[in-house]
Amino acid sequence: MTEAGGTYTELVLDGLARDPGRVALRHGHVTMTAQECLDAVYRMARALERAGLGRGDGVTLLAGNTPGALLVRLAANLLGGRVAMPYPESPIADLVALAEFAQTSALVFDPLRCGPAAGAVARALPAAGLFALGPAVPGGAPPGADLPELARACSPAPLEPRYRPEDVMAVRFTSGTTGRPKGVLRRFARPARPALLSGACFLLCTPLCHGGGTTADFALAAGGTVVLQDDFAAEEVLAAVERHRVSRLYLPPHLLYRLLDHPLLATADTGSLRRVGYTGCAPSPRRLAEATRRLGRVLHQTYSLTETGPISRLSPDEHLDPRLLTTAGRPYPDTGVRILDDEGAPLPPGRTGEICVRTPTAMAGYWRDPELTARVLRDGWLHTGDLGSLDAAGYLTVAGRRNQMAIVEGHNVFPHEVEEPLRSHPDVREAVMFAGSDPDRLERVHAAVAVGPGARVTAEQLRRWAREHGDARCAPDTVLILPAIPLNGLGKPDLPALRALAGERIGRPAAALGARKVV
Length: 519
Known about the structure:
The chain is an alpha/beta fold. It has 14 helices and 26 strands. It has helices at residues 8-18, 34-50, 67-78, 92-101, 111-124, 147-152, 211-221, 234-244, 253-261, 285-295, 370-376, 415-423, 459-469, 495-506, and strands at 23-27, 30-33, 58-62, 82-84, 106-109, 129-132, 145-146, 168-173, 183-187, 201-204, 225-228, 248-250, 275-278, 299-305, 309-314, 330-331, 336-340, 353-358, 377-378, 381-390, 396-401, 406-408, 411-413, 428-437, 443-451, 478-482. Helix 1 crosses helix 7 and helix 4 (92-101) crosses helix 5. It is globular, with a radius of gyration of 23 Å. The relative contact order is 0.08.
């Protein structure tokens, strides 16, 4: 239940108002106090309202990690606007489709970073209002109104919220690892378990449109400071940690590995770090152990989905136990997790089935898809589509997505059964399984591995290693050896790209290696 003044947007604005003189945002040479952030939010909200934006209107934001992008979300929300923020580096055709799907009334864009993409969206949605986060620049950006300039003529006085707690605050897109991104509904009602980071200095170097944006909001709400970087660069992250005494950092596993591999880490001062969070895909236990040795007791794993919010966690101290590094930790106290078989019956500890979750942070549903919402949300439980198991101590192991499982000669093969043995090889930095079919339409297991510089290991050696260090029935038929695993925009393995590479290597069309469809 939401208390008066307890919506998500008010949580952040109230946090800024409690200590208006503190530094709240840093971005390059730009520094903004909490009061300056509040003033910007209220001015932009009034400018958008004068332009006709109101409760229930859809606002699509195409921008990177800038103060304007972070604050305009709050301004649009204050008016009751429904914000959708696709990953700005997605293919332009995808951005156009997502903006149409989100029923965009107003497009807000960064003319420097997203001009051509915004131009394509504007041409596809001629009725949408156009607002640029800065003056026009040459290079394909549409002629949108300069929102900061419009805002300067508006009052910075506080503005009463135009929304109701039950209104839709945001449409957040899933990563689309196994298909088209889905739109997850989030309402204004304050989340039941906000991860307040009291006084923290949080460095955001991953896309604002995903989990890092929520963490940034919570840091501002708790009286902290957010340091914004446009993209991840290991040397810039290390420099910012030293310069600003960063205490909180979020890095998906592939970026954590890049930080560990950078030579500057050996001499950088990372003593201010108190928590380095990671989530997104299964990590390498060997590399997690290395990160703990080099960074200290700071690693904090969260298993979460866009649909659920945080489900389980592995604390820094639990990272000291090697037996736990293949798990996703234990569920949060207010979160129920059960493992169900294909008929919906609960499975005992140790058995693998679908992970189903009952949590106060679950989504309200899928945008414009009531049928999928009804299939996923049933009797108060959210069916994640992930496969996993719980052990007797309550630790959760995630085996992979349901539609990434393969059935090989009648035996279920889960991604972790293929990936973990490969990750244990000293030359392998990362491993990803994907399923495909042979000419007789029988399913086969394939894997891609990323190896370190100078590694001489062969595909056959890795296949033999997988047989000797895991279940021989789960050894991959094909191993692709790559310098890096191709990733989608949100840092998850790009399975279509891997299938295309596998098709090229073995002389078969990529479509013939398509994943089995499981609803």
